[in-house]
Amino acid sequence: MNTDKHGFKAILLRHETILLFVVLLEWLYFNSVGPRFGSVDNTFDIMRHSVEIGLLALVMTPIILTGGIDLSVGSLLGLCAILFGKFWRDAGMSIPLAAACTIGIGALAGGLNATLITWLRLPPLIVTLGTFSLFRGLAEAITRGADTFTNFPASFLFLGQERWLGIPAQAPIFILVAIGIWLLVHRTTFGRSFRAIGFAPEGTRYAGISVERRLAMAYVLAGIIAAVAAIIYTSRLGQAKADAGMGYELFAITAVVLGGTSIFGGVGTVHGTLLGVAAIAVLNNGLVHARQPREVAGMLTGLLLILALTSSIISKMLASLNARRQTSVTKPIIT
Amino acid sequence: MKRHFRELSVAAALLVVLLGLAIVAPAFFQPQPLLSLLTREAPTLVVACGMALVIISRQIDISVGSQFAVCSVCGGLLAAKGWPLPLVFLSSVLFGAIMGAVNGWLVAGLRLPSIVVTLATMVTWREALRWQRQGEFVNLPDGLQWVGLSQIAGQWTLILAALALLVLLALATKHLSAGRFVYAVGTDAEAARLAGIRPQLTIFFVFVFMGALVGLAAMMNVVQSPQVDPKSGSGLELKVIAAAVVGGVAVSGGRGKLWGVFVGLLLLACISPALTHLHIEAYWEKAIQGAIILLAVVADGLRTRKQRN
Amino acid sequence: MTKSFGAVRALKGVSFDLHAGEVHALLGENGAGKSTLIKVITGAHQPDGGSIKINGESVSQLTPASAHKLGIACIYQQPALFPDLTVAENIGLRLESASVFRKVNWAIRQQRAAELLKRIGAEISPDAEVRSLSMPEQQLVEIACALGAGARIVIMDEPTASLTQKEQHLLFAVVKDLRASGVGVIYISHRLEEIFALADRVTVLRDGESVGTNKVGEMNESSLIKLMVGREVSAIYPPSESAAGNVVLSLKNLGCAAGGVENISLDVRAGEIVGMAGLVGAGRTELARVIFGITPADSGEILLNGQRITISTPKEAVAHGIAYVPEDRRRHGVILEMPIAHNMTMAIHDRVFPGTWLRFGAERQLALDFTHDLGVKAYGPDAPGGSLSGGNQQKVSLARWLATKPKLLILDEPTQGVDVGAKSEIHKIIRRLAKEGLAVLMISSDLPEVLGMSDRIAVMRGGTITAMLLAKTDAHEVMAAALGKQN
User: Fold this and answer.
1) Which domain holds residue C31?
2) pTM of the prediction?
3) I need a labelling partner for B124 at 20 to 30 A (CA). Which of A62, B177, C423, C457 fits?
């Protein structure tokens, strides 16, 4: 019993395992090409640079599990970053208070997406495309396109630039969020409902689950975490500008899809997403060490996304073939 | 009247904006700046027509901005090599069609969702271009600007060409069976299949056509300046999607008219000069554009909600 | 003109022939194989065996497109129209050639649409968007399409189900017109009076087999009903053992305009199985959806154990102890991609997973208990719902709702698409549940099932309950009530 799912061969062939090997191969290759690549410093560098995209990818996972998408997270990161600067510099708030207000704004922005998607039943794609433009536009309008927030206190910059207990100071936050989202998706009824909605939204409603509330939760959560990412981003760079996080939504979506989450919803894991983030981060950093221009990394990310999509289609076809075969074979009664 | 209600209400909104401007900022209607504004929007209109078709067939293409940049640079390079102008135009259209075919094959052939496919091709083209050009401008030979005409004549040529294309496409979507197939596929792909239409093939060609229009639009933009900016076309996708959605093209597919897209585009195009004339900072443009998209989809959402109940 | 075929999944060696200039009625209970037969003729399904001959020529590999070319047109119950396009365009797209670069002549489209609509006497503007039309109007557009196609074979699947009296008369005139011009019409209807008024011959299908083709003139209502009902209802159903207790569910003048049901009054007692019979479209599933809060009621009252309650979402219905095993198992009943254990706990997340934390051990145990209790055949609680056979999927759907420990269980077509063995097992389970004191409302189109299982039978027609019959009634009476005939 259960050999199908937990057998050695099955684990080996699982998407996450293959991806893990890909990441390891990437690492080994770049380690052999770039002399400094494998150093502890560089490893921490990779971590630092992937925290914000990693956070966005983490919250994108539940959304894509429900069969939705959120294109606005990158823009929201930008808006939150400059609002954080505004709260601190112009409203004279302390850093913790400014951070709390920023997170509140993130929740509100996520709530706007959620309201339009659930209450009016509009497609997430077009709603978040609208807020994608709106949030970025607000950020540009507030800063008049040029205003930059700098000179943050050292105690705040510590979060993004220093080490704490030997590891990058922002890493613990990331790890906490990762564990939180992992538990949410894999260990609570919410995660179960997200999947069910992704597979069959109507069927989920027929089971007495409030689809609207679950969807709203996923989008509000994305807003909150985008705000957290904005604060870390500001701390890492020591400045907040209106173009913060431009294009991050693409990297986040790519990491999620690369990590084995089906763009059609239902299937996917949070650890897969983490591996997807790692694969992209190592690739980006490694190419620099291999003296390749930065643009190659961007290009490869796009190609990787197409590749991952194609493979998900193929595995979907294989799965449906499999399911058909299983139906035709008589299974023993379990007792 | 009733069937054009959505488009007419956008036209009314445009009229109100124009009237407001006439009272508050009559300077807006000076012929030369107005002509420049329309010329700038002519290529956008061409892309918006293609986007309308894509959305009517219930798909989306957000890679048009990148395609636009690739076509501009490639066309510019060929022109710099001394190719004759018509050939440059033709090859740009061809480049666009090829990139459109890639999208079309991934979406229609492999049945991948268009949003993610075009997100991926968007970044791939854009980064590939940046890699190759490193931000370098392409200097165009003399005589290319304004298609070799005087500035005024060139501007009029571009505007009239864009309008002619709009009228042609509007007629084709209404009076050519191919145009009706796009609507049929967008409203119900399965019913279309039963009626003997091939939905996937239709979608493929809609993407190819979109690419070809982008190639044409890129050239219409290139001839407006002595250099080609490799960053041109960034944000174009949002602008044309906004124009289509505001102009009454339903994101659920199957509904929309090209003249509505035209009015929608004019409305959006008025924002930035209107802001300047009203002494509001131009930085609000993007935010207002986003708000208008949301407003349009909310209005449509409320309407269908009312129909449902 | 002859057609004959052998075994299709839902058809067992049915032979059927249609002459030119004849109206051939097809009659049978729901699920007797009528729709399958039609789908084979229109090329939507491929037969597994047998042959189709048109004008004496054998036709193989029939597709919707080639059937269209051969002059076969079908008017389905659910119109397959383009909702966003106008009537004229819908007709145009169906009738014009599919070549890509062809000028669309709107004047001709308009004129043709107007002509066709006039011929069937429909007062529909060719400019109207199909979305804005009512269901019967859409059906009339379908009929206009078939008429315009100049079809030699026209199939009508319950064309009058939603038509008004006046529209019906117009339709009859059209059918007679078609017959006179040498067209063969296959006419499917549950309304016996229509068959006697229109048809030349009638074929009765039962359980995927033909039980005879007769001249209509040689039949009467009673003999037709007898042919349809056929087999005797006997010992195959477990006997009723429970005594009805208190009234659990009481509906008083319940109605829902959006759901198309009105003025429903019904009591269901503890330990009682109330069967609900009626034809497709009579409003039975719609009533279940109203009680379960999917399309909430807008008039009347629902009383549960004497308490007046309002239900506006499925979640509230579940909280009140109402369970609904839906008709469309694959879309609503079971999530095919999810393991059966997850499916079984879906409606009781609050109870098995206190504090929202998943408890895999408890879930697995619950799934094992139910698979054992209901005899679900699967390789384990991890088996995806889609890997199970129809009957076992139905048991999983049932388990999900039994796990909620409901007071009222609504079953919608509990044995549709289920093999004989699983069917009798499901019947035993339902009996046992009733014996344990559950109130059961069972919607079924399987007449013997309704008769064999129910303590009382409610018959619906046209969105309301038209008759309440006692258990020991006979099939003839139920069918007559469902068809709207006086005894």
Assistant:
1) 2-229
2) 0.85
3) A62
